[in-house]
Specification:
By secondary structure, the protein is α/β, with parallel strands linked by helices. The chain has one domain: Dihydropteroate synthase-like (TIM Barrel), CATH 3.20.20. 40% of the residues lie in helices and 16% in strands. The protein has nine helices and ten strands. The chain has an eight-stranded parallel β-barrel with strand order 3-4-5-6-7-8-9-10, surrounded by six helices. The chain has a two-stranded antiparallel sheet with strand order 1-2. Helix 1 crosses helix 2, helix 2 runs parallel beside helix 3 and helix 8 runs parallel beside helix 9. The longest helix has 18 residues.
């Protein structure tokens, strides 16, 4: 199982890491921590040294009730950072975390090679056609509702079946547009209750039937710290436990704040499976 990034084939049969680089003042865990180019370069260098394959740059916070910002503001946050990373780490593989087709297009034109879309095209009707033109790997996530209202009583008859059906439809639409590299993300915490999140984590292996790579993003999320009555800052151990379960159940990419610990989890699970 491979994806093509800038002409480089990335083998996902061995799990990879997507390191989070939030250029936002209001993200739930690390908002407003990267205040200068020096901070950004230092964080990126550490993630690369610790074993990340991808750097996921985001300029729009998608936490529940996050503020809406304009496309212009989002572009103003992410494009200079993508240029900065390309200049200083020319071999790095940059993902743009956005649901806006214009931001995705501009990011790829400036050096990003993956688009990570929390809405799977639902929040921008031009996104699928833009991805087809760009021919870059595309992460589609499941979310019930929007970031504004997604946690207002999320309801499912059978969450695993519904999400598999949702992805099968999306994958079919993208294949018709000749999009080759599709990655799915069940969207832990996006329009799901605590119970929904753990059902999905437990049933993750069932999504392997869709025959596309699976990305899991549980890092320091409320499904962990609410269960344990703690905080995002104290949820690293819980994150490692959940990442390990995701790997055991077939996840190909871990999207994380803490790369070193995720890399160690991958090494342990790989040793176990081999």
């Amino acid at each position: 199982m491979h994806i093509n990034c800038k002409g480089k084939l990335i083998d996902l049969s061995s799990p990879k890491i997507m390191g989070i680089l939030n250029i936002t003042p209001d993200s739930f865990y690390d908002g407003n921590t990267l205040k200068s180019d020096k901070d950004i370069l230092s964080r990126t260098e550490k993630m690369l040294n610790d074993g990340t394959t991808f750097i996921d740059v985001g300029g729009y916070s998608s936490r529940p009730n996050a503020k809406n910002i304009t496309k212009k503001k989002e572009l103003g946050r992410v494009i200079p950072v993508i240029k900065l990373l390309n200049k200083n780490f020319p071999k790095s593989l940059i993902s743009i975390d956005t649901f806006r087709s214009k931001v995705a297009f501009e990011a790829v034109q400036n050096g990003a090679c993956i688009v990570n879309d929390i809405s799977a095209g639902l929040l921008d009707n031009n996104m699928f056609n833009t991805i087809a033109k760009l021919q870059v790997p595309y992460v589609i996530m499941h979310m019930q509702g929007t970031p504004i209202d997604m946690q207002n009583n999320p309801t499912y008859q059978d969450i695993t079946k519904e999400i598999i059906f949702y992805f099968s439809e999306k994958i079919s639409q993208l294949r018709q547009l000749k999009v080759n590299d599709i990655i799915i993300d069940v969207g832990f915490g996006f329009g799901k209750t605590l119970e929904h999140n753990y059902q999905l984590l437990n049933n993750l292996a069932l999504l392997k039937n869709l025959d596309v790579p699976i990305l899991s993003g549980v890092s320091r999320k409320s499904m962990l710290y609410n269960l344990l009555n703690t905080s995002p800052e104290k949820a690293l151990n819980a994150t490692t436990a959940a990442n390990t379960i995701a790997l055991m159940n077939g996840s190909n990419i871990l999207r994380v704040h803490d790369v070193k610990e995720a890399y160690e989890a991958i090494q342990i699970v790989q040793a176990l499976k081999s």
